[in-house]
Amino acid sequence: MTGNEIHDVPEYFAPDEQSIGLVVTQTWTPDLPPEGFPLEGGRRLPSITLAYETYGKLNEARDNAILIVHALSGDAHVAGIHSPTDRKAGWWDVMVGPGKSYDTDKYFVICSNILGGCKGSIGPSSINPETGEPYGLDFPMVTIGDMVRAQRLLVDYLGIERLLAITGGSMGGFQALEWAVRFPDRVASVHAIATAARLSTQAIAFDEVGRQAIMADPDWAGGNYYGKSTPKAGLAIARMIGHITYLSDEQMHAKFGRRLQDRETFSYDFKTDFQVESYLKYQGDAFVHRFDANSYLYISKAMDYFDLANGCGSLIEAFEGVQAEFLVVSFTSDWLFPTYQSKEMVRALQANGVPTTFLEIPSTYGHDSFLLPNERLANAVTDFLAHVQQHVRQGHPGRPVSGREVRA
Amino acid sequence: MTGNEIHDVPEYFAPDEQSIGLVVTQTWTPDLPPEGFPLEGGRRLPSITLAYETYGKLNEARDNAILIVHALSGDAHVAGIHSPTDRKAGWWDVMVGPGKSYDTDKYFVICSNILGGCKGSIGPSSINPETGEPYGLDFPMVTIGDMVRAQRLLVDYLGIERLLAITGGSMGGFQALEWAVRFPDRVASVHAIATAARLSTQAIAFDEVGRQAIMADPDWAGGNYYGKSTPKAGLAIARMIGHITYLSDEQMHAKFGRRLQDRETFSYDFKTDFQVESYLKYQGDAFVHRFDANSYLYISKAMDYFDLANGCGSLIEAFEGVQAEFLVVSFTSDWLFPTYQSKEMVRALQANGVPTTFLEIPSTYGHDSFLLPNERLANAVTDFLAHVQQHVRQGHPGRPVSGREVRA
Q1: Could you tell me if A80 and A21 are in contact, meaning their C-beta atoms sit under 8 angstroms apart?
Q2: Can you tell me the ipTM of this complex?
Q3: Cys-Cys crosslink for A165: which of A189, A242, A301, B232, Cβ 3.0 to 4.6 Å?
Q4: Could you report the per-residue pLDDT of A158-175, keeping only the tens digit for each?
Q5: Is A149 on the interface with B (CB under 8 A)?
Q6: Within an 8 Å CB–CB cutoff, is residue A133 touching chain B?
Q7: Do B212 and A268 touch (CB under 8 A)?
């Protein structure tokens, strides 16, 4: 491995022969009631816009729709390419496309950029209609529940009564879980991948340090940096911290070890010595060109706030009204969302009699495992989806809802 | 636990009944040859000063001296108090004092602040005699080997031919290992605690992000901030990152969980919500008042550069000339210096026939375990020291040195 090759590790993969090809991102602005879109934090957005992509066709029975929800830095562009010259495909092209696990020849696949994001959906970089300027920190805090409620409007708009599946990794998993609990009759199955019912304390700690790095950057300017110099240094540091948590000690050792970057001996100064330093800086620098620092603040906070058991007493009680079947997948080397958290979920689901398939996949790639080609993940999803579709078409009634009122 | 109590967790412990009591830090500036003190990075320091403390008495045989070497943010003040009103004792008061494992009634204990530090030894905040101003980034890079060579001058000055033990945790362990390899006839035993023969790639990555945070702070000003505003925000972020790596996921969960800090509900802004955030900010803010940001850069870089196998081909070859006996201790929840790294050392020592005692201590406190009261660690050190002292007094010859030339 030469020094430069380590930078060619694609964040997303090149489109392959089974790629869905050219796709477009659409945006949708729903007609809202006069009060706008109320948020769990107590404030309201006068209007919202969601960016989304769809692939495949909704069948006549409208029972083949799958909603894919993305992680912190993701977007609506989950598969295919936007232009014939794109070198990289959507962020989960390995899983979504003709003949793939989320088979666009069979299923109608939807992916929407989250509320608070910076990839077409409304977020802190959007224009505040009251001022004509970007919201910045005037943007109200949004929660995972708010993201999911906005997605439900989109699913309504697309004419889908019940999703065959909602699938998400990492923070996408938070949204998938929230859907199943909040709108139990709208979801036939949940694929919760490399995720948890809440962040660990350690993960909250890392998020907070990333936010502190952004807010300590003078260019952040209290969030009012649009049209000026953006807080690149702070956001890059936040991203570097994140990246370490997405990999594993084992994988970093295998990938970089103690190899030096473009040099034979130590610099004996504070320039780049090790390949791992160069890799992290590259990742940090690349990120600041494609992501908004304020969105990073809002979304990471939404992750920290998320706890499926909030207001329910326990995770077992949280899952009480669930009608979906569950596929829960963790990866052995994922220390950001460790397997013990998946097992907690599985136990709570099983305590409610929820049909649950759990799979811990051996992998050295850490949390990033779910984004990489993985035959066991691909097969598990393919099989699970076929099985759920069969249940749905057999008029499988779903689990009887308990008498407990579900959250709406 | 109320919100405020979490801030009272002492970094060092209050002096107990067995504390050695009042101690003083001394400084020593050796007479150097005209060429000064040459460094491994190729540059020289015209003069050096070391801060150190000693407790107990050197016996007539001069065979009861123990050198304690400290970790990144430590200092020479390893035990006792500096003033009758001190609320906290030295950083390893739990292990050093009358009747303790490093028993100052029996042993002559020395601890010296490292080269490059900011606690009395020469470092980047010291005055550069050529300019009359603080060195800043004109301070030459120092290595673990340089630190150890300076300590050897001090040990010579104190009239000690052979140390009964050199003991260190974390980066202190790096120095202890280096001593045993570089000056094999000067060390009867090594206590390598929560350490390794090199940093993991992941640990280098965390160090680099910490350095980037410091250097991204405009107040850092290329290292020329002395007498002006210091890079508090950057150093605090580096410290927060460090702190997460010193604890364990399990311990953070037990200590903080998802408890909120001085509030009943979420803030829905970017102020402090969780106790773990408050704790980290407190640790970061406290650190900037007691530590120099440039020293943090230099010392963390010295850690990254350290690899006992550098220039030796392998760890087994690195240990070839060693004459000391070894006590190697790791802690189960330490993910910064995981047990697998201790085991690598132990295997390489055993391959050389070095008498080695290895102990993995169950603990939930992560890397910080070595600084906390731990009966198993205390007993292991007490027993091992008694055993080594017996060997030394029986005229135990040490291991025969192999034909290979040792590093000098």
Answers
A1: yes
A2: 0.93
A3: A189
A4: 999 999 999 999 999 999
A5: no
A6: no
A7: no
If we measure between CA atoms, which residue out of A39, A130, A114 comes closest to residue A73? Answer: A114
- The residue ranges of DSSP E strands in A98-160, in sequence order, are 102-103, 108-112, 127-128, 133-134
Q: Does one domain contain both A238 and A334?
A: no
Asked about A367 being catalytic, the answer comes back as yes
Domain coverage including residue B325: 13-198+308-393
Look at residues B257, B276, B301 and tell me which one is the last residue of a structural domain: B301
Q: Which of B268, B297, B335 sits opposite A141 (nearest CB)?
A: B268
Asked if residue A7 belongs to a domain, the reply is no
- pLDDT of residue B243 exceeding 50: yes
pLDDT over 80 (residue A408): no
Interface test with B, best of A1, A138, A141, A202 (most B CBs within 10 A): A202
Q: Do residues B295 and B387 both lie within one domain?
A: no
* Residue in B202, B216, B276 closest to A205 by CB: B276
Pair B382, B282 in one domain: no
Q: Name the band, by pLDDT with cuts 50, 70 and 90, for residue B1.
A: very low
Hey, what are B245's tokens?
A: 């790596």
Interface test with B, best of A209, A214, A280 (most B CBs within 10 A): A209
Residue appearing with tokens 């706030």: A305
pLDDT computed for residue B192 by the predictor: 98
CATH number of the domain to which B259 belongs: 1.10.1740.110
Count up the domains in chain A and report the number: 2
Which residue is listed with tokens 């029975």? A61
Active site annotation includes B367: yes
User: Contact, B134 vs B124, CB < 8 A?
Assistant: yes
The model's pTM is 0.94
Residue B404, domain member (yes or no): no
Q: Does A236 fall in a domain?
A: yes
- What residues are paired with B53 via a beta bridge? B111
> Do both A327 and A382 map to the same domain?
yes
**What residue type is assigned to position B174 of the chain?**
F
Residue B167, token pair as written in the block? 């003991």
pLDDT value of position A311: 85
